[in-house]
Structures are given as C-alpha cells and as structure tokens.
Amino acid sequence: MRSPIDDDAGLRAAYRAHGAGVYRFALRSLRDRGQAEEAVQETFLRVWQRRDRYDPLLGSQQTWIFAIARSIVLDSARARASRPQVAGELHDFHAASEDHAEGILRSFQVEDALARISHDHRVVIEQVYFEERMPGEVATELGVPDGTVRSRLYYGLRALGVALAEAGYADAR
Question: Which residues are within 8 A (CB) of 165 and not within 5 positions of it... i.e. 6 or more apart?
Fold first, then answer.
C-alpha cells in the first residue's frame, strides 16, 4: 500500500494538517518554545524517515504522527530531567506530561475507532458519554424507544472495543 507521504508534497500536506497540533502538544508538554519547535522538526523528520511504516488500516495519519511526537516529547523531557539544574522541577512534570500525552493519544485512538463503527452506535455513544446525556433523553431526541438506545449503547461499546483491538491498541477490551 502506498503511503500518503511518499513525496515532498505528501510531507508538506501532513505538516500543514498536523504541524500546528504537534507544536501545541509539544509546547504544553515541554513548556519551552525552542524545545517545542525542535520536537516538531524531529517529529516530521521521523515521519519522513519512517513513512513506509505507516499503515492506514491501523489508524489515522494523525494518530501515527502524534505517537511519534509523544515519543520525541518524552525523550526530550527525559533529557531535560537528566540535567541537574532542572531535574527537581521536571520530576513531577515528567509524570504529568506522560499522562497528558497518553490522554491525547488515547483520544485519537478512540476517535479512529468510533469512525469504524456504525453511525447509529456512534451517535448514541457520543451523546451518552461525550455529551453526558441520559439514554432516555437521547431516545426522545432520536425518536426511538429507550431500550433501543440502551441496546445501541451496549453493542456500540462492544464494537468500539473490537475496533480498538483490531487496530492494535493496548487495553482495548
């Protein structure tokens, strides 16, 4: 399968689509503009070098790029932590940064998996879990019985778990 980043134009398109998000992620995580810019450069260098490893069947380009960025940001934070002058302040930051990076990556993984399940299941999951609405409210809005919404929720969550597992995401089930 041909990668969408097989040439300069593909890399430029990936950078235009995801560069700003990678920068915001790196800046929030590292709290240093210079290091965030370096993280973005390193991310897209690795994207180019590893373009043959991208498999769109396993996840979106965004998920793949952010997984690379997460690794680079964590490496950068570890490198800063090894310097004596910042080791103390970075100890707590590193743990928080890793949790934040995991959260962002997991949200992209869930977003990809949601795109792989049926529309009816996806709508109910989004309404109940992301919009924090009660199944009865969702049923009224959709014009279906409450039991239908609960059934779609149950089977939708099962399908979501399968989609995550098929994509190779850890702790999917």
Answer: 172, 173
Say how far apart CA 81 and CA 95 lie, in whole Å: 11
CA pair distance 96, 88, nearest whole angstrom: 14
Contact 77, 99 (CB under 8 A): no
Q: Is residue 141 domain-shared with residue 65, that is, in the same domain?
A: no
DSSP class of residue 52? G
CATH for 128: 1.10.10.10
Q: List b or e across 52-67, with b for residues whose CB sees 16 or more CB atoms inside 10 angstroms.
A: eebeeeebbbbbbbbb
Q: How far apart are CA 7 and CA 10, in angstroms?
A: 5
Q: Cβ contacts of residue 38 below 8 Å, gap of 6+?
A: 76
pLDDT value for 45: 93
Classify residue 7 by its DSSP letter: S
- The continuous run of DSSP H or E covering 92 comes out as helix 84-115
Q: What are phi and psi of 82, to 5 degrees?
A: -75, -15
Tens of pLDDT along 68-124?
A: 998 898 888 877 766 554 445 555 555 555 666 666 667 777 778 888 899 999 899
**What token pair was written down for 44?**
């897209």
Q: Of 95, 115, 135, which closes a domain? A: 115
Q: What is the tally of structural domains in the chain?
A: 2
